[in-house]
Design goal:
Blueprint: H1 2-44, H2 48-56, H3 66-78, E1 83-89, H4 108-116, E2 118-120, E3 123-124, H5 130-139, H6 161-171, H7 185-190, E4 195-200, E5 221-223, H8 258-274, E6 281-286, H9 298-309, E7 318-321, E8 324-327, H10 333-355, E9 362-368, H11 401-404, E10 408-411, E11 421-423, E12 427-428, H12 432-440, E13 472-475, E14 485-489, E15 492-499, E16 502-509, H13 525-541, H14 595-601, E17 624-626, E18 646-648
Parallel strand pairs: 1-6, 1-9, 2-11, 3-12, 4-5, 4-6
Antiparallel strand pairs: 2-10, 7-8, 9-10, 13-14, 14-15, 15-16, 17-18
Helix pairs in contact: 8-10, 9-10
Length: 659
């Protein structure tokens, strides 16, 4: 009996030991599993910023990795594509908003938008005038590539006779940007299933025959789009002639203000699009304000007249520069009232998005087409000038900073980490096209927006980068007293004037002199020669006239005619394929030197610029990586400028195809 009880006791003890062992093994397994998960995360040091960029990262070309496609599919399936609203204000200056330190204007709604998103401090327009700047926004290309702005002699005065003939023929029945063989910003959203709407000023029609509406560029709903670049009056009926009045403005009556009316029409479209929750929308609200004529609602004008009287400084101050007077004091009561109406518009749009419960799914981009109107060609008195861009020099029509610096605010409600960001990252409005595609998770189209780059990294991880080695170009062939051309590279800005055969050059160091008050050409001859050479080389390479000699790339196809630029269309009555144009263009012989030859013959700017760390105006050249890829040449206009493009190494993705 004793042996039996002893054996049973030992058996129970063994079972207890085995049970304890199993429990210990299970606990160890759980601990090991947890450690196996967490240790790599700590080793990789992935923070919120890295995770943000990982969600945003899309290759700069259409060659996408399987991982990127998988991420996009998961994002689209779970959350759906975001809605996008692009708000463009006409002639709004860099100093016209409270968030950009306006000393006179009240803009609480736009200021709140900036606080909720990213405010770019160094955003540029691609041209200091309305039409060519809008060409840059909707094409993603420097407007000079399309011969914009137009002149009496056109491009032929610069030796591009064949190109000019092609443009006149192909644009005759469309607009100031191509309809055929080209995908504009609206097209890019439409072909990916977006509802698309355009409200307000378009100004890209062919004025001679009054044709070419946003409908030809991917926008299904168009409201308030007329031939005019400005209206005769901002109050009903808005125009003396019926043909120049914004059409489709339902319910407008005597006393109605155009800015308010366009906002109402935009809200109606938002309600319409809300009925299709599974289909996102892309809406452009392009106000005719704050372009002249200077007219505003009486209650706001009276408010700013009272505010003007309380100013403890002189009003209506001006400065004479390069043959024109321009305003340097911001105290125009009527113009301030117009700005506040625009601010109200932004507030109403956001309120409606909140009411429709789609604010958290809607990206809002706010910008202007060029600098504020601080002077006029009639050179009248200062009191009739709209605004001041001071301390920046001059304004609209000028290639000085006051004419090309514009406000740019991007609000993306999906990313809380980037709220209230003040980004120093330099950008130009040709970047809006690829940036919107990037934010929406759509594939980029480098064959189309060849001068645009996504600035999504500049919204966060590169927001403190002030200067890059990517050049910005401006070209103004009309040229009365305005600058003729300009290039901005790193912290150097080179400006070229031309009156007849006379040519005057200016150089500014924006790191030390952001307001262009000290011309330093004689002190920096190497930099001057380099930038002058790069600007001239760019003028020779953005169009090769021989490519247009016997073939106009932008003609409407008349059947399955093979060209060296593209595959023939299956249906000649339809627009081009939704897929980006492949690189099938074969470059013809050009009388100009090759990019490599030009590069060797021009002194290069030093790669490291010694600038005080206090201003944080430059980053080490070691953080830059040469872009090994060349933009595909989908058309004769896709020939890249010879100057190498640089991008921060962290967002550089080499094109796997080697193109």
């Amino acid at each position: 009996a004793m042996s039996t009880s002893t054996s049973s006791h030992m058996t129970v003890k063994k079972c207890s030991c085995l049970l304890v062992e199993k429990v210990v093994i299970v606990i160890l397994f759980i601990l090991c599993h947890c450690l196996a998960i967490h240790i790599p995360i700590f080793d990789q040091e992935i923070n919120e910023t890295d995770l943000l960029l990982k969600n945003y990262t899309i290759p700069l070309f259409n060659q996408e990795s399987d991982e990127t496609n998988l991420l996009r599919q998961n994002h689209d399936t779970i959350n759906g594509k975001p809605n996008v609203i692009l708000i463009i204000i006409d002639d709004l200056g860099i100093k016209d908003l409270g968030c950009y330190n306006s000393p006179f204007h009240d803009t609480p709604h736009i200021d709140r938008l900036a606080k909720n998103g990213v405010q770019f401090l160094n955003a540029y327009a691609s041209h200091p005038k309305c039409v060519p700047s809008r060409v840059g926004i909707f094409s993603g290309r420097f407007p000079a590539r399309f011969g914009s702005p137009k002149t009496k002699r056109g491009m032929s005065q610069f030796g591009y006779k064949n190109a000019e003939k092609c443009y006149k023929e192909s644009f005759r029945s469309s607009s100031l940007i191509p309809v055929y063989n080209f995908t504009s910003l609206g097209d890019a959203f439409k072909i990916h299933g977006y509802n698309t709407g355009y409200v307000g000023k378009w100004h890209l029609r062919n004025k001679a025959i009054r044709q070419g509406s946003p409908k030809g560029h991917g926008f299904d709903d168009t409201i308030g789009v007329c031939n005019a670049g400005s209206v005769d009056s901002h109050f009903f009926p808005f125009g003396k002639k019926k043909i120049d009045r914004p059409p489709n403005l339902t319910g407008a009556s005597k006393g109605d203000y155009l800015t308010d009316q366009l906002t109402k029409e935009s809200i109606q479209l938002l309600k319409k699009y809300r009925k299709y929750p599974r289909k996102p929308f892309f809406l452009v609200l392009s106000h005719y304000a704050v372009h002249t004529p200077l007219e505003a609602k009486r209650e706001y004008v009276e408010k700013y007249l009272r505010k003007r009287k309380q100013l403890k400084r002189p009003v209506d101050q001006g400065k004479f520069d390069n043959g024109e007077h321009y305003r340097i004091s911001q105290d125009n009561a009527v113009y301030a009232a117009m700005v506040q109406s625009v601010d109200d518009s932004v507030g109403k749009i956001r309120d409606k998005l909140r009411e429709l419960k789609i604010e958290e799914k809607t990206i809002i981009v706010f910008t202007s087409d060029n600098g504020g109107q601080s002077s006029a060609e009639d050179n009248g008195t200062i009191d009739n000038k709209a605004t001041s861009n001071a301390p920046y020099r001059h304004g609209k029509r000028w290639l000085y900073e006051g004419g090309i610096r514009v406000p740019l605010i991007i609000f993306d409600p999906r990313q809380n980490q980037i709220k209230s960001t003040l980004s120093k990252y330099p950008t130009i409005n040709t970047d809006i096209y690829p940036t919107l595609l990037h934010l929406a998770g759509l594939p980029l189209r480098p064959n189309d927006h060849i001068d645009g780059r996504s600035i999504v990294p500049g919204m966060d991880i590169h927001s403190n980068i002030r200067f890059t080695s990517r050049p910005f170009f401006w070209f103004e062939p009309i040229g009365k007293v305005e600058p003729f051309a300009s290039i901005l590279l790193k912290n150097w800005k080179f400006v070229e004037f031309k009156r007849g055969k006379k040519r005057r050059l200016e150089l500014y160091n924006l790191a030390n002199d952001p307001y262009e008050s000290r011309e330093v050409k004689n002190k920096n001859p190497i930099v001057t020669k380099s930038l002058s050479g790069q600007l001239e080389a760019w003028k020779r390479t953005w169009v090769n006239d021989d490519d247009f000699k016997n073939n106009c790339f932008y003609f409407k196809p008349k059947g399955p005619v093979k060209t060296p630029f593209q595959k023939p269309f299956q249906n000649p009555n339809k627009k081009p394929s939704q897929k980006p144009i492949q690189n099938s263009f074969h470059c013809s012989t050009t009388p100009f030197p090759s990019p490599q030859q030009v590069k060797k013959s021009i002194p290069q700017i030093p790669s490291i610029l010694h600038i005080s760390e206090k201003n944080n105006n430059m980053f080490s050249s070691q953080t830059l990586s040469r872009n090994p890829s060349v933009v595909p040449s989908g058309s004769p206009l896709n020939r890249p400028s010879y100057d190498p493009r640089f991008l921060p190494s962290k967002i550089l993705i080499k094109n796997p195809s080697g193109v």
